Amino acid sequence: MFMINQTNISLLKLRSLPIFNDLSSMSRVTGFSEQLLYYYAISDDAKKYTIFEIPKKDSCNTRKIYAPNYALKILQRWILENILYKIECSEYAFAFKRDMGSPLKKNALVHKEHVFLLEMDLENFFHSIKRQRIVYLFSNLGYNVPISNWLANICTYEDILPQGSVTAPYLSNLVCLQLDKRIAKYCSKRDIVYSRYADDITFSCSNKAVIKSIYGTIKKIIESEHFTINQKKTRFIGKSSRKSVTGVIIDNDCIKAPKEYKRLVRCLIHRAIISGDYSNINRIRGYIAYISSIEDDYMQKVVKYINTFKTKRDVIFLDSTVEMFNANIFLPGVDQISQIRMTMEEEDNFGDYVTERLEFLKKRHMKVPPELGKL
Questions:
Q1: Do 273 and 162 have their domain in common?
Q2: Which of 184, 282, 305, 314 could, after both became Cys, cross-link 342 (CB 3.0–4.6 A)?
Q3: What is the H or E stretch that residue 201 is in?
Q4: What pLDDT score was predicted for residue 374?
């Protein structure tokens, strides 16, 4: 790939991107000191991230999460807001976008008209994106080689795009722009609908033979874009199977959350109120937040269910329990959403899910806790 040695000011102006061509001007434009920029853009220090592991869903393996320290998080947020968000990603990508409403729901909706589904998963999605691809990305935006390298250094760690960093989700969408275009072009000629939600790729079609014939070509396209298909997670969904896209159920043209989740919420709420033990409150809030992002009226159903306990004589409320009950402790509006991570930490790309839920709350004029807004 070709990289420019000089800053392309015209290109940066055309894209309304901040202009800087050295450390000094970068400091002046961003408002960060040269010392701080040097540390995060040039020095190699393991203290930039806190690294921990969480269990993978339906697996005995673990996933590495890289949590940037506070200063790096702020710096990455500046890059995200002032550079990355100004570049449009593919219309076929549904995760990690601003002003997307309910992305899981919208991703499922595009497939509701077709009977047959093919789902694929990109293995080690974030960590498959190497630092050099991020360098090329910034260079193609118009930044010179040193600046492109420094921006890439701020956004990567040990040559990979670290899952858990602020910029990783949207950068992954920009890196996948060519992948999305190539797959979509191939599918459009065969009347196949294509969408991607992070590392989850979905195809739908009304012709069984057609959708079953595309695997080989799609595999070649994916591998040529330096990704790998997780064979264990590839599945074909036919007429007799429950139709779901990234965990969202499509039932008679209606979009629903899995019944198992809703049954679990009812069970957990019942147990908490009957026993007065609210130790699972964060888990309950997490499930309510997830389901309500798919079903608009779910909050009202939860409130109605909670209210049924007011007339039950077998429920013994302590004073503290009554206070929590009256405050609708289970509902993830306002302040409680800050603890949602504890519930969904097993899910892929959870940090990005929290970001999307923040936008959901803001649109409904709900208060967002300061500590969550920094994510």
A1: no
A2: 282
A3: strand 200-205
A4: 37
CB 172 within 8 A of CB 161: yes
Confidence at residue 147, expressed as pLDDT on a 0 to 100 scale: 95
Place of tokens 């800053």: 7
Hey, what are 27's tokens? 């400091």
Q: Is 117 helix (H, G, I), strand (E, B) or coil?
A: strand
Domain assignment present for residue 37? The answer is yes
- In this structure, the answer to whether residues 151 and 71 fall within a common structural domain is yes
DSSP string spanning 28-89?
Answer: HHH---HHHHHHHHT---GGGEEEEEEEPTTSSSEEEEEEE-HHHHHHHHHHHHHTGGGS--
Contact 245, 117 (CB under 8 A): yes
Question: What's the confidence (pLDDT) of residue 216?
Answer: 95
Q: How far apart are CA 290 and CA 251, in angstroms?
A: 18
Answer yes or no: is 3 within a domain. no
DSSP lists the bridge partners of residue 52 as 65
How many C-beta atoms lie closer than 10 Å to residue 312's C-beta? 9
The angle formed by the CA atoms of residues 307, 357 and 300, to the nearest 5 degrees, is 20
Residues 239 and 305 in one domain: no
**Could you give the CA distance from residue 99 to residue 71 in angstroms, rounded to a whole number?**
26
Angle at 347 between CA 106 and CA 62, to 5 degrees: 145
Tell me: do 282 and 361 sit in the same domain: yes
Q: Are 192 and 183 in contact (CB under 8 A)?
A: no
Q: Please tell me the predicted confidence (pLDDT) of residue 329.
A: 57
Which regions of the chain are under pLDDT 50?
Answer: 2, 316-322, 324-325, 332-375
CATH code for the domain of 142 = 3.30.70.270
d(CA 339, CA 73): 19
The domain in which residue 295 lies consists of 259-373
Instruction: Provide the whole-model pTM.
Output: 0.78
Q: What is the pLDDT of residue 101?
A: 72
